[in-house]
Amino acid sequence: MITIALIALEATVLATAVPTIVADLGGYTQFPWLFSAYLLSQAATVPIYGRLSDMVGRRPIILVGIGLFLVGSILCGLAWSMPALIVARAVQGLGAGAIQPAAMTIVGDIYTVAERAKVQGYIASVWGMSSVVGPLIGGLFTEYVSWRWIFFVNLPIGVLAVWMLRRHFHEAVTPRPHRVDYLGSALLSIGSAVIVLGLLDGGVAWEWTSVWGVGVPVFGLLVLVGFVLTQRRASEPVLPPWILTRRLLAWGNLVQLGVGALLIGLVSYVPTFVQGVLGHGPLVAGLALGAMSIGWPLAASNSGRLFLRIGFRNTSLIGLAALVPGTLPLLALGPDSHVWQVALWCFLIGVGLGLVASPTLVAMQSAVGWADRGVVTGAAMFSRTLGSAIGVAVCGALANASLVAGASPATIASATHDVFVAVAVVGILMIGAVMAMPPGRHIDHPDDLGE
């Protein structure tokens, strides 16, 4: 949880500091790359780190990830120009790409299947709390100290995480020769980074119908086609083809993609609605969204006994029975709505996500043994990151279409309504993905049951 807090805080702490950073370093037209560079390097490396953790163990990978993240944080704090800060953010992303899959895989290794959903609910709560605490920390440091300290504050957190892991986490890895899939790793990194770039900058840096708008995603897809062809011949592929052919894993990854898209829509536009339409401050907006972080761990912590009794798919369907009714009332929100209504629907959505995201990931981890758990978890985290990138592109295009006339309360209300429609559609589509998953408990390895 401490390690995940590093990347969770970094996802939210920067937003409130951007105006001050731009005023200090310049480069207003380049500041979106502060977010894009981080997400690109993270998304491109998540599956690779997942496979490497299956080869050498989880602890070396997560420690390397923390080290890279802290080096990137130091470079960010010392940055003398906007390009230097963007490069440093990319280094942070390289570390984050290792931290997230390794942490989630460690949960799969050391907890029984009944315990994993509860623990993953705790980890999910870190993300929710960060959505409230992150902007506050960013605002306080920027206003009263320096924006550079929003990066330096990562150092004590990271050092504490390293000490905890080295002292309390031990694993026995049987040494054996490995053949690293360098070509596949390179193609996956390039292809996924280019596609995420196209999704993030489409409609922003260039028009969707322009040569760049069409060419960048197409090039990324062609590179990924080459990647798929190499995986059939690799002795130890970085992303084995069976991940996309096994029914549980294929549909489980689609569920994770939907989770990423839904989350980014809510995290990005619920605060915008509360501030821009209802007229409240950042703290109230963060608290309204933070209700989701209460519902998620509450539901996830109680889902273990539920899916052991009725199965992962049925548990996820119960979650969708809460999630979808939570997204639909968002469509009725307007200038006369109250903050408690926003918080209530976010709480209900959090309950739904706790019964969908965590059990689905547990099912995917439980379908494989230790030697493949890292790559399966990495694929799930990559799917969620890709879903966020797609969500950013779609929600941004929908919002920008309404904001062409200016950012008045009326236009913001229209923009957020369109985004909430997209969020509701994603929730409905997730029903189909969950229904396509095979029924049953999906525990192929008896050790996952515990004693």
Number of helices: 19
CATH architecture of the largest domain, please?
A: Up-down Bundle
Highest CATH level, the class of the largest domain: Mainly Alpha
How many strands?
0
Order of helices and strands: HHHHHHHHHHHHHHHHHHH
Can you walk me through this structure?
Helix content is 78%, strand content 0%. It has helices spanning 2-13, 18-25, 33-56, 58-78, 82-110, 113-144, 149-152, 154-168, 182-201, 211-231, 242-245, 247-276, 282-301, 303-310, 312-327, 339-354, 357-366, 370-402, 409-436. Mean pLDDT is 82; it is low at 446-451.
Q: What's the gist of this structure?
A:
The chain is 78% helix and 0% strand. It has 451 residues and is mainly α. Helix 9 (182-201) runs antiparallel to helix 10 and helix 12 (247-276) packs antiparallel against helix 16.
List keywords for this structure.
mainly alpha; 19 helices; Growth Hormone, Chain: A; single chain; 451 residues; 0% strand; 2 domains
Task: Record the SSE blueprint.
Layout: H1 2-13, H2 18-25, H3 33-56, H4 58-78, H5 82-110, H6 113-144, H7 149-152, H8 154-168, H9 182-201, H10 211-231, H11 242-245, H12 247-276, H13 282-301, H14 303-310, H15 312-327, H16 339-354, H17 357-366, H18 370-402, H19 409-436
Helix pairs in contact: 1-5, 1-6, 1-8, 3-4, 3-5, 3-9, 3-18, 4-5, 4-8, 5-18, 6-13, 6-14, 6-17, 9-10, 9-18, 12-13, 12-16, 12-17, 12-18, 12-19, 13-16, 14-15, 15-16, 15-17, 15-19, 17-18, 18-19
